[in-house]
Design a protein that fits this description.
Layout: H1 2-7, E1 15-18, E2 26-27, E3 38-39, H2 41-50, E4 60-63, H3 74-82, E5 86-89, E6 93-95, H4 96-100, E7 106-108, E8 112-115
Parallel strand pairs: 1-4, 4-5
Antiparallel strand pairs: 2-3, 5-8, 6-7
Helix pairs in contact: 2-3
């Protein structure tokens, strides 16, 4: 999932973050294992700030399964910490070409959540 996410087209003015995810964490990159160490919203926010690619208020597209789920509030917490809008799937995220071959784009089993920092 990580490599297809990296090949997907970025959206101008939006920071794209690709990771394996769950309602409560995303996994850091690892050369040795399929999944790296889990990161909390605070830890991911620190990595985003340190990346040099993020500007205050810049929206974030979080391509990480289930991070928009209300069960764990990962994306909502990230939105509050960074005081920005976070787009995140509320279920599993699948690359359409993995299902349909040459087709492009992302498909969420449910809907994409649009999370503002002021919610909750």
């Amino acid at each position: 999932m990580y490599q297809p996410a990296l090949r997907d087209t970025d959206r101008p003015g939006i920071l794209t973050v690709c990771a394996h995810g769950s309602p409560r964490a995303v996994n850091d990159f690892s050369w040795l294992h399929k999944y790296g160490d889990p990161l909390s919203p605070e830890q991911l926010a620190e990595k985003i700030r340190d990346s040099g690619q993020f500007s205050p208020g810049m929206p974030i597209w979080l391509k990480a399964c289930n991070t928009g789920s209300k069960e764990g509030n990962f994306a909502q917490s990230l939105a509050k910490i960074l005081n920005t809008t976070v787009f995140a799937p509320d279920n599993f995220l699948v690359k359409v070409e993995a299902i349909l071959g040459a087709a492009q784009g992302w498909y969420q089993h449910l809907q994409l959540c649009w999370l503002e920092p002021s919610i909750l």
